[in-house]
Amino acid sequence: MIADDFSRKIGIHGIRIQLAGIHWTMVDRAAPGPDRSNRTDVRRISANAQDPARTVCRMRSPLSAARVRRALPTGRRAVAAVAVGVLLVAAVVSAVRPRGPEVRTESAMLTVRSGPDGEQPVDLDTTLYLPEDASAGGKVPAVLLAHGFGGTKESVRADAEEFAGRGYAVLTWTARGFGRSGGEIHLDHPDYEVRDAQRLLDWLAARPEIRTDSAGDPRVGVVGGSYGGGLALLLAAQDRRVDAIVPMITWNDLARSFLPESTGGPATAGVFKKGWAGLFFGGGGTVGSGPAGLSGVTAAQPQGAPASAGPPSPGPGAGPGTGPGRAPTGAADPSCGRFAADVCAAYLRIATTGRADQAAVDLLHRSSPAGVLDRIAAPTLLVQGEADTLFPLSEADANARGIAAAGTPVRVAWFTGGHDGGAGPKTDSDRVRYLTVQWLDHYVKGGTTAPGNDFTWSRIAGFDALDRGLVATGYRTTDYPGTGGDGRTDIAVTGPEQTIANPPNGNPAAISSVPFAGALSSLLDGVAGDVPGQHARFESAALTQAVDVVGSPTVSIRAASPTGEAVLFVKLYDVDPNGGATLPNGLVAPVRLAGLPERIADARPVTVTLPAVVHRVEAGHRLRLVVATSDQAYAGPAEPTVYTVAAGDGPVALPTVSGEPIPTAAAVWRWVLAGLLAAIVIGLVVVVAVVRRRHRRQDSSVHPAYADVPLAVRQLRKEYADGFVAVSNVYFEVHPGQVVGLLGPNGAGKTTTLRVLMGLTQPTAGEIYVFGHRLVPGSPVLSRIGALVEGPGFLPHLSGLENLRAYWRATGRPWADAHFDEALEIAGLGDSVHRKIKTYSHGMRQRLAIAQAMLGLPELLVLDEPTDGLDPPQIAEMRRVLQRYATDGRAVLVSSHLLAEVEQTCTHAVVVNKGRIVASGPVEEIVGESPSVLFDVTDPVAARDVLGRLAGVRVLPESDGQLVVDTNGTARSEVVAELVRAGIGVDRVVPRRRLEDAFLALVGDNSRGSGDR
Description:
AB_hydrolase_fold, 23 helices, ATP binding, ABC_transporter-like_CS, dipeptidyl-peptidase activity, six-stranded mixed beta sheet, membrane, Rossmann fold, Jelly Rolls, disordered N terminus, 43 strands, alpha+beta
């Protein structure tokens, strides 16, 4: 059902639900923009910022999702066009869809009569939300919307508005004992809270706007989370007028919830869940602890109702508003605030002793759906959280089985949130939101397709690539398998018997979970976690394949105690290969064992059922079974003692469920986008393959004139689409044994020439041959070229040698062809090649980059500024590296701005200016005979004066303390003779030859070329 309808239906209407202080949002595409101009009476005011003591059991449910629009990544043209098209379609659809109805509200204090005799009055603070078009002639179905423990009617305001916007009349109220309502807290007692809700049904049935099935029977669904969810179940069992219910994150048996015992023992033997119980009673601790400091002593008056509406008319069993919410008048203990006396007394007895008596268990059973499930006829959607240490998944499982046994339609949905985990990711919220709306629309509003009874669950799948939020993947299966799953994987755990200590009064205690923050357990490992000496560990081998656990694992343990009793806490960790341990959702199985022997050898195995989880244990991970003596969330024995524990005879049994992923609207769009991108990529690959194949067919022959020439460039021209000419006419050759320098000013065309040479761009005209093969992008002959053109890119955490090996593996060529030793010897790195790259100097990185280019000993080495950033000693070493490489038939092409280095390193040079060759050949020929002469004399100052008087002779500015003279045709012998006659000794006379002089003469002062791109 979901797979077929989800994407289509999810966008038609919108709703935002907040149950038990629980928020969720569904985008209403039919609704107007942010101003909500067609719903002027709707107020989006959150009542969550109340006294923290009153917000104990309010949390964000599966129906929570922020109103955030996630921007989809777009390309520059094609994807942008698609996005514009989608927006246009959405705008048209939004324009033609009908607008949702406006909402009006009526608020008042109602006095209802309940109690064991049905005659005890209590004032309830209520608000009725009505679609604007609801009337006696246009009746609408109703929703009774209950809040969570510690909340008020304001906690569910936004949800009520959204339900009303969908065409429901919604009645919200503050439960007795909370806020401005009167009375005491009886924990959803059938005679009090449940009967209060029955009187509200009477009131709804008397409203002229409400659709009825018969006189006094309103068409109504009941929705609530946690405390409100328990009320929904108990009300449906007590009143057959309820047409459908959606209880969320709620309980089956309060005794088992607060006194769990995981071996199947009675509730009187259960281990007291003191952390949650303390929060519950702290949340009801103050008389009149309402929002904004209301104490229940102000006069009652309608709130927010239209002036013409007047106060609501009382229905059967409801009297007129009577002012202040009646404060409790019984004998309740002051430490329990507004709790009823019997509830307070039971709590104090259990909290004091850590054990429950039968009377306390009976009281909790009285407020539990467990004993009345067979009386529920209303179709039920049970939504339960996987991150919930208060009401775990087993509570919903028990409710589902009890309701289904009576033949009532029931559906179960698990989600990744809960009392500890909040609402879960947006993808989870969307799924549960859809199920809730679908359920009510069919069973309450009518006229829609039956939703079916598929079981759905979800698992955290990772992070969203756009906003880095968590993403949950939903799954479904036709038949509900329960917490036992429909399959099983057995994993053996081993370890010796171990002695563990129970500390006095349970202090210090292990930390496995924190109420409202079960996911925090993963952060506690290594910080608090299990206390040394107070827990035993048993571990499995690494899993050979991943296991998706869905349900309650079972384990077997043995225990011995000198007292004959033991309270233990059993946990199952997921341990990754690095030793990091994760306790899924902080869930623990408490057990109380009696009749234990003193010696472990005499102990019999006991089967422990762990809380149900949805968790993936990856391949390579291990399971760790931990048996601890304390947990701060529970009460244990006060007396110190020592236990001995051992693993049982059987393996850990992991339940699994076979299901299929549930597609979502987001998933559909992702698949569409992925398909579009895949089609574009495939098209590009096909085009490139065709072009390369065409080039290879055309260039498979070898030019006979260049078969033994590493590189021959012929009349190369590169012109861009805008008419810019980067290279107009470049031609040169590089022969074996040569080190050729490619010279030219900035913008002369050097970089463009190298890019064409490396196949990074296509020339407009001309040809390049490598050993006779015409060079085209992707040509196989490129494997005979090693290059460093754009700078090296290394992984800093790897050594130099590891980087080289990673690079060579990426080429896919055989290891024997790499010639690592030869390349490293030429690069001259020595033992430094074994150091991590992050410790390298710039010069060492450059030499390693040269070595990388030399891997495989390519016959042609192309380097762009190889000495960039090096100091003089490093430059000298690089010079020797290149000269060593150009042997055995290999050749080197170097592009550089350092003319002095080119002059000392290169055998040949090619000078480019304005995209053309202005000179090429051996360096000596390009330099030629210089008119400048270098003189070494005994007195340079006197020599400068003497030569300055000679006609035609010019002394150049001093260079490095030497005397440089331009003779301008005057014989050198005459210059020397003149110096000697002046009494100046001449030690040496040598011609001054520099490539720089020749270069400047060739390119001139106006040397800016066409420019490189």
